[in-house]
């Protein structure tokens, strides 16, 4: 089964029943870049990346190494904000560890194939394995990590990317303060019908302080926030 068919099946079987008006959404997507362009330099911070809106193949992120782990790179603005946030957390007695940042498309492809192979090894069919894996591992071009604007942040007491992160003091601190530095929790609990991704308490996305405050205060997903911009008469 081709990846296009599988993506279509996943989209139709899951996303259609969310809170978003899908026929309107598909129409809105055609105007997404034009509308968000009105935001000027802030456009790249609101880049919407999901299964329905892939990163352009000619996109080149503006990357820089992180101070904590130079082998991990992030968008230069996101990196500066993250390091300020980590310093503030340290002052409050919390050490934040960067588990991952930018991933290129080939890395994302390898990651997806490894996870699919693992699922097939546990007895799933190819289609079942794909459906299972893409709940957390995005197809190439559809992962926020390819923008350089997303970082997986963990606690020293639990450096595994699982839901137990939500119970750590570091994660609780991040939820309380991340918007002050322009970050949002990208995949909140019980919002999978909108984001298309399972709850990930470790995955934080840089959108800029001007947007992060509204998103976190109102409990929005990035999808909802961007769609509100699209549907508004003013940017």
UniProtKB/TrEMBL annotation:
InterPro entries to which the protein is assigned, alphabetical: DD-CPase-like, VanY-like_core_dom, VanY/YodJ_core_dom, Zn_M74/Hedgehog-like
Gene3D superfamilies: 3.30.1380.10
GO terms of molecular function: peptidase activity
Residue ranges of domain D-alanyl-D-alanine carboxypeptidase-like core in the record: 72-208
Protein name: M15 family metallopeptidase
Biological process, per Gene Ontology: proteolysis
